Amino acid sequence: KHSNQSNHLRTHTGEKSYKCIQCDKTFTLRSDLIKHQIKHHITYIGEKPYQCSQCDKAFSDNITLIEHKITHSVEKQYQCSKCNKGFLLNSHLITHQLIHNRKKPYQC
After folding, report:
1. Rg (CA), the chain
2. 11 is in which domain, residue-wise?
3. pTM listed for this prediction
4. Burial level of 92, CB count in 10 A (0-12/13-18/19+)?
5. Are strands 18-19 and 26-27 parallel, antiparallel or unpaired?
6. DSSP code of 37?
7. Residue 9: which CATH number?
């Protein structure tokens, strides 16, 4: 009963206590947040509707896409001398170079 009264009071004060972690939109009622998330953010397992506009990668949620897009804007200082692919970390370059030598980077 107290919860219903609190929810009702929020409709008068305009207080929006519920925030969507995907897009930062706020809601007065938890039920409205849930409806919003189902309509705009819930995807089926394996579905990847968020496509990167700079490469062919796709993601299941917008947050991961945003994090991925940073990789396109950061300078990649370690370049492969055989294919010119760039890497943020030297260790990633070293692992990548194994494919040119036809070696598997990891062994079971």
Report:
1. 22
2. 2-40
3. 0.40
4. middle
5. antiparallel
6. H
7. 3.30.160.60
